[in-house]
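Now for a chain:

_____
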Amino acid sequence: MLFGWLAAVGAVLAAIVWWFWPALTAFFGWRSKPEIPRAAECSNPNCVRCRQYKAVAQQAMVKLRCLLQEDRVSAVPKRLEEAVRRSTLTPKQPAPPSWQQPTLLHIHGLPSSPWWDTVPRRLDDLFRRLEASAAQIAEEATAAFEQQELVKSNDVPSGQWNAVYFCNQGILNTLLLKNCAAVSTLLKDFDDVIMTKSVFGNVFFSRIWPGTHVEPHCGPTNTRLRVHLGLQIPPGCSISVAGEIRTWAVGKCVCFDDSYLHSVSFPKTKSGQPCRIVLILDLWHPNLAPEEASMLQQLFSAAAVQHQ
């Protein structure tokens, strides 16, 4: 009889907890950790992140060995040398799930955060210039997407994701830059922070159509940060980095570390929705020493990609 009474009390308590659990979690600030999704890969045979990372790492290792054989050990920062060596190793077992999963180069010791709401002065100056030029850059984006021969499509499970590249894995489109004065000027004025001389560097207009979902994926390295300048931002579109969901604003920059899992969602809610358009720039991680950035440009040049 006692056992039956205890079982009944336990069932009642369990029902009460279950019923009030949302209110309890909200009151005490409890949050369950979001599950870490699996990183998606694209089918582009020239993609450094998904397809070319082994070949690029091996070429960087060859260049590194040449430098070491030339007794230029002091020219190679130690943590960079260690990162390049690790990039060529095949792990003995799969790494445990992590929000940060750079597919090629991971330099230990770099300050790490999914979102960068506060940046050093030089990057802040760039962001201010981008925001001040947003209207002109938006006009350049409209004109660029009208040139169909420049528009590239990216893999998505649903919807459509297009891009027009000023810099694609370290290769500049000089003709497009001539026709886009605002972007061209920014690249020249901030060439010390914008990553355009390495296979890791990209600068492009990104257009997402309604009904598009970009699966969670990671960039190839933690040596860069990625900034988005909002140019056309309809309601309902969002970006998630390491499980934290945010959105864009027209004429404003958002900055994050794309070596963390990130995804984009733009549900289609009605006909006639406009596209989401942003300008994307890859920047050198602000805590890399100048000699480290210079060495990375040498070891991971755009010529490392074996185009197919």
User: Anything to note?
Assistant: The chain has a mean pLDDT of 89. Helices lie at 2-28, 53-69, 78-87, 121-132, 134-145, 174-179, 181-189, 290-299. The two ends are 77 Å apart (CA to CA). The chain is about 35% helix and 20% strand.
